[in-house]
Write a structure and sequence with these properties.
Elements: H1 3-10, E1 26-31, E2 37-40, E3 43-46, E4 55-60, E5 64-69, E6 72-78, E7 86-87, H2 90-115, H3 119-128, H4 133-147, H5 149-161, H6 167-181, H7 187-212, H8 220-228, H9 232-236, H10 238-241, H11 245-270
Parallel strand pairs: 3-7
Antiparallel strand pairs: 1-4, 2-3, 4-5, 5-6
Length: about 290
């Protein structure tokens, strides 16, 4: 019996192929670092930010890269066969940006609300009036660091009761309460004030010295030129020669000669020979 006859005889007993083809892919376990990307085949594929610092599984075939957390598919990208590429999904990046904005905004506010609960009412009033919430948060946090939670809470209560919601009003109330207690200014405020006074004093002193002792004129460059040329006696007795008419011409000639000799030396060391311009070529000469 031939092979063809055997196949024809057994063909009726064979099972049909399944409707779903067998999945053929490469499976790899990967780790997500601090950034929401997984590295596969020398490329970085984005994943949702909530899977940072976790282990995921990559199923990759010739067309797609699927990233799974157990049996759940968390990301799917078109496979890239280039190297050192970063393949991202817009949804992953936008969600990450929104979460970072919320975290940055909420951390400062939460600290304020825990330390000074009345700040919630102040923020509500500021939002209704269209004030900048971010600026208000940063300025109140600065006051919180300077004066402490108890003082900031009492000052915010007083400001909100008066119907205001500016950080400047809170700062004024804090300063008034400090003066009433007879306390010294906070060290940071003293530092800022002292720093400002020192800077002002330095600027005024510099202006005064510049006025009394003006800068030396441009003739000083001739003094330096003489010293660079090796004329030590000339430099030591500069005040005697400064007003002589021939000094300027002499030093300019010395500087020009020094530059010329320096250029010749550099050309000689570079071994660049003199070149004939095109206008001097003998176009009628015959080639030997």
């Amino acid at each position: 019996m031939t092979v063809a006859e055997a196949f024809k005889q057994e063909q009726g007993s064979l099972m049909p192929l399944p409707d779903n083809p067998y999945a053929v892919f490469e499976s790899t376990v990967v780790s997500v670092g601090k950034a929401p990307y997984v590295r596969y085949d020398m490329n970085d594929y984005s994943v949702p930010h909530e899977y940072v610092q976790k282990q995921l599984t990559v199923h990759a075939d010739s067309d797609w890269v699927r990233i799974l957390d157990g049996l759940k598919e968390v990301a799917k990208h078109k496979r890239c066969f280039e190297k050192r590429r970063q393949i991202e999904t817009t949804e992953h990046i936008s969600r990450l940006v929104e979460e970072k904005k919320k975290a940055k905004k909420g951390s400062g506010m939460n600290r304020l609300f825990c330390s000074a609960p009345t700040a919630r009412e102040m923020f509500r009033m500021a939002a209704e009036r269209g004030y900048s919430i971010g600026s208000l948060t940063s300025k109140l946090l600065r006051l919180l660091d300077l004066y402490g939670p108890a003082e900031v809470e009492e000052s915010i209560k007083e400001v909100v009761t008066s119907g205001a919601c500016h950080s400047a009003d809170v700062a004024n109330v804090l300063e008034r309460r400090r003066r009433q207690r007879g306390c010294y200014r906070h060290l940071r405020l003293i530092y800022r004030t002292t720093k400002g006074l020192l800077i002002s004093l330095f600027c005024r002193t510099r202006w005064l010295l510049t006025t009394i002792f003006p800068r030396r004129n441009n003739d000083d460059r001739f003094e330096r030129t003489g010293e660079q040329a090796g004329l030590q006696g000339y430099g030591a007795r500069w005040n005697e020669y400064a007003n002589q008419s021939w000094v300027k011409e002499l030093l300019e000639a010395e500087a020009a000669e020094k530059n010329r000799r320096s250029l010749e030396r550099r050309l000689r060391e570079s071994q660049i020979h003199e070149m004939k311009p095109v206008s001097e070529f003998d176009w009628e000469a015959e080639d030997d």
